[in-house]
Amino acid sequence: MINKQEQTDSATAQLAQDILNYNINATTIHYILHNLFRSLKPIRCKYRLTINEIIFLNGIYLYCKHISTCISQNACLKFISYYNLGKVKYYLGSLLRKGMIQVTEIINRNIRYKLTQAGLSVMNDINGFRSIMLYFNYCFSGFYPTNLIPGKQS
Q: Which domains does the chain have, with CATH numbers?
């Protein structure tokens, strides 16, 4: 008798391996989100944004930079796939009220948005802050090779 649970299709297994390339447990995901929350605190305080608004703004920035000049609600739903339609509407409205995005055009009742100067300044600050944090983490995390530190020999 063959155990059907042990049988796997090799094509399906390969596809799952390609999609789930990382073995990440819930603790690691929590740690990553906690570090993101903690590391972006100066930006959150400066611009009065939540982490979800920053994630959403970053998605709009990437879409507008690499795919099109502006983004619609449906494109947000597909591109930033973590959020459902209600959250997409909420965060678009919130970012619109805070002046981070603006309505660019309305085509057949489809509203298209793009980043304002305030939204671009948030993204520029995040990119600058991220490079500083990466440098800091690299130099002082303990993963830095001690033989490369001037005056310190291992």
A: 51-141 (1.10.10.10)
